Amino acid sequence: MNDTPSQWLRERTPEDIECQQVLRQLNRLPRHVAIIMDGNGRWAHARNLPRVAGHREGIESVRDIVKASAELGIGYLTLYAFSTENWRRPEAEVNALMRLLEYYLKAEVDELDRNNVRINAIGKVMALPKRVQRVLKRAIEQTANNTGLVLTLALSYSGRWDILRALQLIALDVRRGKLSPEDISEELFASYLSTGLLPEPDLLIRTSGELRISNFLLWEIAYTELYSTETLWPDFRRKEYYAALADYARRERRFGMTSDQLHDNQRASSYRDYLKELFDTLIQRR
Ligand code: FPP
Questions:
Q1: Which atom of ligand 1 is least distant from the CA of 100?
Q2: Which domains does the chain have, with CATH numbers?
Q3: Does the beta carbon of 56 sit less than 6 angstroms from any atom of ligand 1?
Q4: Mutation test residue for ligand 1: of 35, 55, 231, the one with most atoms within 8 Å of CB
Q5: Catalytic annotation on 116?
Q6: Closest listed residue to residue 158, CA positions, set 231, 247, 88
Q7: pTM for this prediction
Q8: What is the pLDDT of residues 30-72, one digit of tens each?
């Protein structure tokens, strides 16, 4: 890790700084944001471009959302970059996605490191081409001691795969006598998932208007707030992200309780409404 001042902070416009200030004042930023990045193909199709052009432009969105998350002090960002099902795509597209992933990691790792971002991966990483595995391993090792944003890339990942893998690991530990079946609680089960060290996502964003979970973080999203936008991933930049965060900030997360149990401070919630209005005005002005 390197303690030089963040280059990212220097690039920000005054309007952006103002938006981020208002978002912070809402005092309800999610700790963990997960994103299903969808719509790259449609973005390219609308421009008569090959699908890979959509993925390439999608990387620019990844860059912007990672930066904005780090600047806002969000703790965890998890991106669904390649699902188990994505292996079924045409070979040329799979190869292009792998090359883009390798390119992104190589090109960004130093800047991510300078900005205290820690890179993490979930999924069947061993299924990725060796070159990608090597670059990924290096990026994870280089940023392992960073204490800022934890950027988790879901690669060859599916929620059901992870649940089955956790079950197998638990069964092995039972067979070895390390665990007894009575020890298996929700907490213990969650600790065997590949997300075991991450908090559960507070907000799950899906771009391109689809209303599906697509086998992402199935166990972990039990209480997660969902946000869907028509915007295609290559067009999803920080302004759209801020709108999602402001929407989340307004919501009441009850975790099964009643509204009255939670409403300890009505004034705080009106103040949040006021800030949200201010924020919407700022967004429109940009
Ligand atoms: C879904 O769009 C997107 C993907 C399957 C891949 C997402 C990958 C990137 C944004 C680039 C690489 C990622 C990182 C983290 C460097 P789609 O192709 O299904 O779009 P469509 O539904 O419009 O066809």
A1: 12
A2: 30-161+200-249+263-285 (3.40.1180.10)
A3: no
A4: 55
A5: no
A6: 88
A7: 0.92
A8: 999 999 999 999 999 999 999 999 999 999 999 999 999 999 9
